Amino acid sequence: PAAGSVLLEAKAVTRRFGGLLANNNMSLEVRAGEILALIGPNGAGKSTMFNQVSGVDTPTSGEVLFLGESVVGKGSRTIARMGMSRTFQHVRLLPTMSVLENVAIGAHMRGSSGVLSAAWRMERSEEARLLAEAARQIERVGLGEHMFDEAGSLALGQQRILEIARALASDPCLLLLDEPAAGLRYKEKEALGDLLRKLRAEGMGVLLVEHDMDFVMGLVDRVVVMEFGEKIAEGLPEDVQRDPAVLAAYLGG
Ligand code: ADP
Ligand code: MG
To answer: Rounded mean pLDDT of 200-229?
Structure first.
């Protein structure tokens, strides 16, 4: 997609769990070559929103367009194959397999969460192509020197970057990252930020869920703030940071 073109458009997405409105009338838009942060206190509904747009879950009502096409009810594998790739809030790596194998499996499964079944079904004829593509992504994110290390032996910051490499292996135009900076050291956050800037410069769209307001400042292009399932603010990071409703949400949370 051309730089600046709309990749993802969520319109009035609502997700009800019994009496709880985890997402209420949520709308957002992500363009090619843009990083949008979705922030808000714990329990605000950020991960639920990710699940609605990535096909892991289905909205109670509302519309999700990806590359102009409705993806509601399509399922996460289909959506991943269309070019939307995501990571999850908790690391989902195969710790005793190599960095290379972890990414190769990601390329194979294209965004599905069925890691093990994908590993079992991998055919030898496909292996060389997958490994070459995986190696390319590992170099791209700067983990080349760890290609043959066990994933579980990497520092947390490197594991998060490895998850991004795995998401990149299915050749997405839109990346959804759920709290990639959580628990990272300052230097690791810097490395992660540098990688996201590089991907943006290459035209990638990034939707980033983040609890840590400091990490998104100076990195992202726009911010959407959620509280109690709803959007309470949207705009440039420096404006949103000063918004009284946002300050209240963070102090209250
Ligand atoms: P965040 O990612 O912003 O911390 P979540 O999207 O995980 O928030 O959760 C938003 C709210 O929805 C929380 O109150 C959570 O308990 C609830 N919730 C999330 N998923 C489910 C589910 N599958 N069933 C019932 N409640 C859920
Ligand atoms: Mg969450």
So the answer is: 93
In this prediction the pTM is 0.91
CA dist 16 and 14 (Å) reads 7
The residue whose CA has the least distance to atom 16 of ligand 1 is: 43
The per-residue pLDDT for range 85-113, each reduced to its tens digit, is: 998 877 789 999 999 999 988 776 554 44
pLDDT tier at 114, thresholds 50, 70, 90: very low
Residues with CB under 6 A from ligand 1: 17, 20, 22, 40, 42-48
In order of start, what are the domains of the chain with their CATH numbers?
1-83+172-253 (3.40.50.300), 91-171 (no CATH)
Amino acid at 85: S
CA gap 105, 119 in Å, rounded: 6
Cβ 32 vs Cβ 202: under 8 Å: no
Ligand 2: centre distance to CA 175 (Å): 16
CA of 2 to the centre of ligand 2 (A): 30
C-alpha to C-alpha distance for 152 and 174, rounded to whole angstroms: 27
Ligand number nearest CA of 40 is: 1
Distance 213 CA to ligand 2 centre (A): 14
Instruction: Take atom 6 of ligand 1 and give the residue whose Cα is closest.
Output: 45
Asked if the ipTM is above 0.95, the reply is: yes
